[in-house]
Specification:
The chain folds into three domains: 109 residues, no CATH class; 152 residues, no CATH class; 134 residues, Sandwich (Tick-borne Encephalitis virus Glycoprotein, domain 1). Helices cover 15% and strands 39% of the residues. It has two helices and 35 strands. It starts with a helix and ends with a helix.
């Protein structure tokens, strides 16, 4: 009995599967992070016909095609999206699948923040990494769901140090005063104005200073100013206090708003370089700084290069509140597609190596971009034409075999 029918039918099934694969590739031409699937055909075992073993071999057709995912790099497309990220190189983002909690891997980088404050994929899967804990993002811990401080205030930071860069006019007459103000913050985030007044003492190259805060800031005024003397050499350089002397301490106690007492260090030097000079120029301040801040509202969340999760606050500060994790898999071909551009590990998958982007063979993360599908439309259309011709050829074999069978039946009936 001829095997042509079954052989041709196996070809029809194989090419039908191949066409379905091509159709799926083309359907995902614009799917972020999608990886094209290639078809590999394999023949079935053959049978030997005739007395001489192996002299005449006839195959049983083609088996079910094997599909292999092409994990080649897709083009990086700049989107400007604050929470978009793309992987340049090898590796996968790690997610906890919505509904099941299963660990899955993806190259899709369109992320968002859900109502619970967790970073998620477009389909709602929870992105894995490290979150801020007690002000620190500890990447030595096991990764988990990345949470961001949605709706939270950044706590205030009390000022503990301040500095002012300025020049005091060496030509100033005795008794001439110059003042500069620095805004500092207490433990509750209340702003206080510290005023530093310099007065020419009447002695060349010598100025007296007085540091004070408004009496209205205190529960029990008046404030006792911090006073002292600055001495300069003939070149206008500060010599006393020296860089090796203890810095000036400005205590502020008994605040009216109930905040903790403050003790601010006023630094006169940047390393060994004085912040204050005395040249024959007008007295003027050029810069000032302090390390405190008021409470601030969260304005936005974004992903930076390297997979850092940044929180932007209303006072302009940026804080790293999270870090994305990445997985490097030695044999990604063993992964099983799970939908939503996600992949699951199979029994053949090597143990994923999880760590920071850009380390251990893992690719880098580019913020504000996504990785486009790596489907090549020209290749897919070429394959589609070939598979269509293969299907038609096998269909013609079936038609031919049917005609031969009918001829055989007619011969039998004629006898």
């Amino acid at each position: 009995m001829s095997t042509s029918f079954s052989t041709a039918l196996s070809g029809l099934n194989a090419y039908s599967t191949a066409i379905s694969v091509v159709g799926n590739n083309l359907a995902n031409l614009d799917t972020t992070g999608f990886k094209t699937v290639n078809v590999e055909f394999q023949d079935l075992v053959t049978q030997s016909i005739g007395a001489d073993l192996g002299a005449t071999q006839v195959g049983f057709g083609v088996g079910t095609p094997i599909t292999l995912t092409n994990y080649g790099q897709g083009a990086l497309e700049s989107t400007g999206g604050a929470l978009d990220a793309a992987i340049q190189g090898d590796g996968f983002f790690i997610v906890s699948a919505k509904g099941t909690g299963n660990t899955e891997y993806t190259r899709g980088g369109s992320f968002s923040v859900n109502t619970q404050g967790f970073l998620t994929t477009a389909s709602g899967d929870l992105v894995q990494g490290w979150s801020m804990n007690n002000g620190v993002v500890d990447t030595n811990r096991a990764p988990g769901n990345i949470s961001v401080p949605v709706g939270q205030l950044a706590p205030p930071v009390a000022t503990t140090s301040m500095s002012a860069s300025l020049n005091l006019n060496s030509a100033a007459a005795a008794g001439t005063s110059f003042s500069t103000s620095i805004q500092v913050y207490d433990s509750l985030g209340t702003a206080h104005t510290v005023t530093i007044t310099f007065t020419q003492s009447g002695t060349p190259n010598q100025w007296n200073y007085s540091v004070s805060v408004p009496n209205s800031d205190l529960a029990n005024p008046p404030y006792t100013p911090v006073t002292g003397t600055l001495t300069f050499d003939s070149n206008g350089n500060l010599t006393s206090p020296a860089a090796t002397d203890a810095p000036i301490q400005v205590p502020i106690t008994g605040l009216a708003d109930g905040a903790s007492d403050m003790n601010i260090t006023w630094s006169l030097y940047n390393g060994t370089t004085p912040d204050i000079t005395q040249y024959a120029q007008s007295s003027a301040a050029s810069a000032q700084s302090q390390n405190g801040q008021a409470a601030a509202n969260l304005v936005s969340i974004g992903l930076a290069n390297g997979g850092q999760v940044l929180a932007q606050y209303s006072d302009g500060q940026q804080v790293v509140v999270g870090q994305m994790a990445m997985a490097q898999i030695e044999n990604p071909d063993s992964l099983v597609a799970a939908g939503n551009s996600n992949y699951q590990a199979s029994a053949l998958t090597a143990l994923p190596a999880i760590g920071l982007p850009g380390t251990g063979g893992r690719g880098t993360v580019v913020g504000g971009s996504v990785e486009a599908s790596n489907v090549n439309i020209a290749t897919e259309f070429t394959d589609l034409i070939v598979y269509q011709q293969g299907y038609e050829a096998n269909a013609h074999v079936v038609t031919t075999e049917n005609q031969l069978s009918q001829t055989t039946i007619n011969l039998t009936q004629g006898a």
